Amino acid sequence: MFLNFLKAEGYRASKMKCIWILPIIMFCLVLLTSFVLLKVDMLGMMGMSREDMDAISEQGASAEGLEDSFRAGFSAGVDMGNDMVATAEGEDVEVEVEVEQEDVSIIGEGLLYREDVPELFYQNIATLSTILLLAIFTGLFVGDVYSTGVMKNITIGNRKRGLLFTSRMTVIAIYSFLFHVVTYIWTLICVALMAESVKLNADGAFFKYFFFSWIITFAFCLVVAAVTTLTRSKAAGITVGVILASGLLTMAISIANMILVRKFGLDDSFSLANYTLTQNLAVLNLHSEGHDVARALMCSFIYGILAFAGGFVINKKRDIS
Amino acid sequence: MEELLLVTKELTKKYKNTVAVDDVDLHIRKGSIYGLIGKNGAGKTTIMKMLAGMAVPTSGSFEYVGFGGDNDQAFSRIGSLIESPAIQPNLTAFDNLKIKCLAYGIGDAEYINEKLKLVGLGNVGKKKAGKFSLGMKQRLGIALALVGEPDFLLLDEPINGLDPQGIVEIRDMIAKLNKENGITILISSHILEELSKIATDYAIINNGKIVEESTSDELKMKCRDKIVIKAADTAVILPVLDEKGFSEYQVIDKNTIYVFERLTDVSTLNMEIAKAGIPVDSIGVVSSDLEEYFLKVTGTIAGDMS
């Protein structure tokens, strides 16, 4: 019976327009991010060369190193404008310096121009666009059940509502996974179009990152699904999802963090944001170490299980209307 | 007595402080069209929701005795159209049916088209269900209820909002499903005249309570034209009736007798009772249709039905 429900829910999902529209929007977002990272010459705009950047990396990206590099770039006389006149006023002296400008194009080698596909994929996931769009899908898909009352038709499922809910969440899991795959394909296309060369580098670190980031994404979708189930409203689910994904709660989390630190005498390094799904998704990368990965997975499982259990119980206990 | 399909025992549903359904006992026979009559808010839909497994009773129980008493098993043999048809407006009629078919593990296109033809939607093509007329949506709702070949159909106000032609078509379809497919149907409505044309059994519900449960014949008897005699003591009138050859009469209570024959002889009968020296408070021919009867039984003021 689970398989039948899964087929029915899958078919319902496949008939939603957003299932096709969201990947198209994702393509636009990936294209934009990729363009900025692959083709916009950020270093040139800052008056730095790639060698300077490498030097910074070697110095551990220290503030001192960064300052040195900026100074080096400025001394080199590379600027963004055309003719620039700088005026400095002193107490007695007025000096006018005229600097000859070069024409500089912002299009060139971006920060990740020479990087591989997994690195750009990570950057695209870290923008949180995927969870933003998947929050919309989840809200629409789950909310549709309540706006159309489709569950009323499936009398056979009235005593197996838990199974029906599980099949619905399975569809979300499958779609979010496919969305991840599609995001990777879009990234690959962008790399092929704009990067120096296509370096797949599909090693263990990439697959681990792909899988872990999907786990966090799916846990996030479960939270949105639980909110939608609780409120029986597409709008509520999507709104909560978008607020969480867009970081609109950052201020509230910072305040809560401050209160926790003061009230319970926690260490200053404690950050409540580290225990949110969005922060974990933004922070987790291809080179994350065991501690960060463990925290991300732990958060995903806790949020995911609580959201699933909540939705499951509500769905099972509440009358269908 | 015919075999029963469903029995409810003191079925009750409370929402916070409101009792929507109060100690309801229903007895639905296999093969019957059971009409649930009541004004809006009487509790018809809530009863249906509980019987379809959509709502959990607060107390009491129901048993699908005709399906072996296993309610979980019974839900696979039930089709329902409760409240408005639950359709996906952005999908075609075919796709709407396909979702339910997949959930039931049925599913070739021929089966779906057959169901659509059965309800008169065989030629809607790719038109989205959201653009259907009210009647077409109701038909689609019935088609959805018919998926899985149910033995018991719960139809909540299926003719609501339909034009006269639509009402006749839906009514004929229900009668056909009952006769040809042997489907037992529980149908609710507050359009009593329409219900009276197809129902074989009735339950009248008011404020969550069943006021009366009867067969169509019993109800017709109660609603038919009759001479109503009101007197202080009706027992003394009975010998007069017997003597004058009246046999089809019914003593309702100590003060009321219904006579169902020779309605044109009312003045003669009045004279004969007077001759016997029996004072009569009132005598006359009374005719009432189902609606009037319902209003009387439920104590509802005319025009307050909906």
Structure description:
- The complex is a heterodimer of chains A (321) and B (306).
- Helix content of chain A is 67%, strand content 4%.
- With 321 residues, chain A is mainly alpha-helical.
- Chain A folds into two domains: 2-39 and 111-317, no CATH class; 43-99, no CATH class.
- Chain A has a two-stranded antiparallel ribbon.
- In chain A, β1 and β2 form a beta hairpin.
- Chain A starts with a helix and ends with a helix.
- Chain B is built from eleven helices and 14 strands.
- Chain B has helices spanning 44-51, 71-74, 93-103, 109-118, 134-146, 164-180, 192-198, 216-223, 238-243, 266-275, 290-298; strands at residues 4-15, 18-24, 27-29, 33-37, 59-63, 78-81, 152-156, 184-189, 201-206, 209-215, 226-231, 249-253, 256-259, 280-286.
- In chain B, a hairpin with a 2-residue loop joins β12 and β13.
- In chain B, α3 packs across α4 (109-118).
- The two termini of chain B are 35 Å apart.
- Chain A binds chain B through residues 1, 4-5, 7-8, 11-12, 15-17, 144, 148-159, 319-321, and chain B through 49, 52-56, 71-72, 75-76, 78-80, 82-84, 86-91, 95, 98-100, 102-105, 144-145, 147-148, 150.
Give a brief rundown of this model.
The complex is a heterodimer of chains A (321) and B (306). Chain A has 321 residues and is mainly alpha-helical.
Tags for this model:
heterodimer, A: two-stranded antiparallel sheet, 2 strands, 4% strand, B: 306 residues, alpha/beta, Rossmann fold, 6-stranded mixed β-sheet, 4-stranded antiparallel β-sheet, 14 strands, disordered C terminus
Topology as H/E string of chain A? HHHHHEEHHHHHHHH
Largest interface: A-B, 26 and 35 residues
Strand content of chain A: under 5%
Span of the ends, CA to CA of chain B: 35 Å
Uncertain segments of chain A are 77-90
Q: What is the count of β-strands of chain A?
A: 2
Fourth CATH level, the homologous superfamily of the largest domain in chain B: P-loop containing nucleotide triphosphate hydrolases
Q: How many strand elements of chain B?
A: 14
Mean of residue pLDDT of chain B?
87
Secondary structure class of chain A reads mainly alpha
Report Rg of chain A.
25 Å
CATH class of the largest domain in chain B: Alpha Beta
Per CATH, which architecture of the largest domain in chain B? 3-Layer(aba) Sandwich
Strand content of chain B: 25-35%
Order of helices and strands of chain B: EEEEHEHEHHHEHEHEEHEHEEHEH
Cα gyration radius of chain B (Å): 23 Å
The profile of the biggest β sheet of chain B is:
6 strands, mixed
Unreliable segments of 5+ consecutive residues of chain B = 301-306
Quaternary organisation of the protein chains = heterodimer
CATH fold type of the largest domain in chain B: Rossmann fold
